[in-house]
Amino acid sequence: MLADDGRLLRLYTTPDGYWRLPVNLEEIDPRFIELLTSVEDQRFFRHPGVDSLALARAAAQAVWQGRVVSGGSTLSMQLVRLLEPRPRRVSSKLIEMFRAWQIERRLSKDEILALYLTLAPYGGNLQGLPAASLFYFGKAPGFLTLEETALLIALPQAPEARRPDRHPQQAAAARDRLLRAWAADDRIDAPSLQAATRAPVPESRRPAPRHAPHLGDRLRGHADGRGRVATFLDAELQQRLERRLAREQMQLAPGQTSAALVVEHATGQVRAWVGSGDYFGQDFPGQVDMVSALRSPGSLLKPLIYGLAFDLGIAHPQTLVVDRAEPLKAWSPRNFDRLEQGEMTLAEALRQSRNIPAARVLERVGTDRLLAALRELGGSVAMPGTRPPGLAVGLGGIGLDMRDIAALYGAIGQQGVGLRPQVSAAGGVPGKAPLLSAPAAWQVARILLDTARPDGHWSDRRSIALKTGTSFGYRDAWAAGVDGAYTVVIWVGRPDGGYTPGLTGLSAAVPLLLDAFALLPDADPRWPGAPPEGTLLARAEGLPPHWQRLELRERGSAVATPGPRFAFPADAATLAWNPARPEILLDLRGGQPPLSWLVDGRPTGIAARGRQHLWRPERPGEYRVTALDARGRAATVRIHLRIAERDPAQPESKGRGASVQVEDPDAEGLAW
After folding, report:
1. CA separation, residue 294 to residues 128, 214, 402, 497, 593 (Å)
2. Given a cut of 70, is residue 470 above it in pLDDT?
3. Which stretches of 292-366 are DSSP H helices?
4. What is the rounded distance in angstroms from the CA atom of residue 333 to the CA atom of residue 326?
5. Residue 569 included in any domain
6. Where does a domain end: 198, 228, 245?
7. Fewer CB in 10 Å around end: N or C, the chain?
């Protein structure tokens, strides 16, 4: 598994138990190829697979000295032996010669070299130059020194007898013989020979890279034809975040661990994935990937609940709400601290993560709408049991994973548009999920910028909108944060779902989240910037009447009186608009007067008792029109106005208002 810059993160053995990496000749120093062929096959680039001169020389040396001095096998013949092992006898040599000739007819010299350097034995279960270079020297083969090159050319001649981790003296002797031969042939100079022969050989193997092991386990079956999986992970960030969580692991109680996910929210690319604090943990199941585990999110859904309320015209950040326990749909929520604060703004209720106000807002938004928004992000929403979802969903009564949380908070940082986190380009371009409007996302971000941090963890270097969460029974501690470029999600808890007294998101997860942000490139400290067009900035007393206080739905009568709905215009309608006569009729059915009208979240005028309203837009374009009744129930349509093309054969209308053409096929045709 590779990082975004090609660095190796995770390596697995082949099905037959070998460490092997494919060779790219462009990544190998040409000097290595030159020295290799000088030792193994001097006429490699000229012979057709069998070097008759080398065979004749080997036979003559054997007769003259009474023993085998050189084998006469070309690199192509050695490749045949690696691909098709046979007993060492004359008949096998003849078969190897024929098969080498066949290979030369099918493959180029570079392809033969690449195959040989991929399969050459280097002792134990090491195969190929890249694997040997990695395990003995911790580097890619393009960065080998002279003495390292000599050792790795000498090893395949007797891989077990010359293993430097078991027989360092034999390995050094074989290396030095090659170095002296190259000096005798004037391939290297005397100072280089002296320095190379003094260098020690590695007497142990380096450990296999195991970064992002949980993600590697997930992607292992999705390798390309060369056995590689390319990811979007940032190698440096991944390693530093792993070290940070490993340090944290030593401070956690037995059975606990932590996990982290970092996403670039403009692209949805996952930049770091740490599934636990210790993959090989002994007192907890460290190989369980907590990034993809379904857990209760605690209070992490509250920003979405409030954002939906802002979007639906139900409330405004400065709307007042009563933080006092009252039964809601046969359920009475309690605040985390068991205290009640009385009247407060929704902004302050979200900032302090009060449960009772959040449940009141969700009662108005509706759990079905909340769940539909979550499913828009492409995640798997797990519901407990088979009963219809209740208001407890908004306070953690649901199962989500860290990718779901990252998508949600990424939408807050991306003007309301969520992207499903992607770990590699193989997943395609992530689909965009318009979760919130830009004004609602901005309002939520501004509120969360002032969320409490532990003492000493405030930073002026970057603006971070963060939210904490603690699940029922202190089983999960969460922190999710977003700045102008990145989304970070942290989880702390027990993988087995056990109870941990006193475990909270603020104390356990927020310090890790802020440390993770400190590892990231600086983002714009002015984020989220100026309010988007259509954002209403006002105090509670300056709001329209039905935004000033959030009232509970009246029992009984709420069912008898239907909520408001638009008779005209229809949702998604395109209307022809005349700037000379710009009035647009807004016609409502149902709802309890007086009514308030909002366009893109802003009031269009004073509250009116009638169900019709003449709206005067200033220009064509896209608009979101909302009507609020006396109970705060909302109806919303999105319409598109385009400039009408007047037929010159028709006289200009003398009536009041513009001539409006309705292009929506489901809307009634109206003209006035």
Report:
1. 41, 15, 8, 11, 45
2. yes
3. 302-311, 346-351, 355-365
4. 8
5. yes
6. 198
7. C
CATH number of the domain enclosing 154: 1.10.3810.10
- Residue 361 sits in the same domain as residue 466: yes
Residue 57 has pLDDT above 70, yes or no: no
For residues 249 and 284, is the Cβ–Cβ distance under 8 A? no
Residues 506 and 573 in one domain: no
Residues 502 and 563 occupy one common structural domain = no
> Which among 118, 111, 113 has a CA at the least distance from the CA of 133?
118
Task: Single out the residue of 276, 242, 239, 224 nearest to residue 1, CA to CA.
Answer: 224
Residue 472 lies in a domain: yes
Strand-pair category, 602-603 with 574-577: unpaired
Q: Is 137 helix (H, G, I), strand (E, B) or coil?
A: helix
- Residues in contact with 178: Cβ distance below 8 Å, sequence separation at least 6, in sequence order: 35, 39, 150, 153, 154
Task: Give the global pTM.
Answer: 0.79
Q: What is the three-state SS of 147-183?
A: HHHHHHHHHHHCCCCCCCCCCHHHHHHHHHHHHHHHH
Question: Over the chain, what is the mean pLDDT?
Answer: 86
| 3-state secondary structure at position 341 | coil
* Cα-based distances in Å from 233 to 1, 213, 268, 404, 421: 10, 12, 12, 18, 12
pLDDT at 198: 96
| Domain match, 168 and 69 both | yes
Whether 523 is in a domain gets the answer no
**Residues 178/162, Cβ–Cβ less than 8 Å:** no
Same domain, 338 and 484: yes
pLDDT(656) > 60: no
Q: Is the C-alpha dihedral spanning 410, 413, 418, 419 positive or negative?
A: negative
Residue type, 329: K
Residue 331 has pLDDT above 80, yes or no: no
Does residue 41 sit in the same domain as residue 178? yes
Among 490, 518, 546, which residue terminates a domain? Answer: 518
Average pLDDT for 298-307: 96
Average pLDDT over residues 254-279: 96
Same domain, 370 and 507: yes
Neighbours of 339 (CB within 10 A): 9
Tokens of 153: 């050319």
- State how far the Cα of 618 lies from the Cα of 614, in Å rounded to an integer: 13
* Catalytically active residues, by annotation: 40, 299
d(CA 245, CA 262): 13
Output the domain CATH number for residue 351. 3.40.710.10
CA atoms within 13 A on the CB side of 475: 15
Is residue 565 within 8 Å of residue 635, measured between CB atoms? yes
Residues 473, 335 share a domain? yes
Cβ proximity of 234 and 3 under 8 Å: yes
Asked if the structure places residue 156 within a domain, the reply is yes
> Is the separation of the CB atoms in 641 and 621 below 8 Å?
yes
C-alpha 182/C-alpha 187 separation (Å) is 5
d(CA 639, CA 292): 39
User: Domain residues for 170?
Assistant: 19-198
Cβ contact 77:40 at 8 Å = no
State the greatest distance between any 2 C-alpha atoms of the chain, in Å, as a whole number.
119
Number of domains in the chain: 3
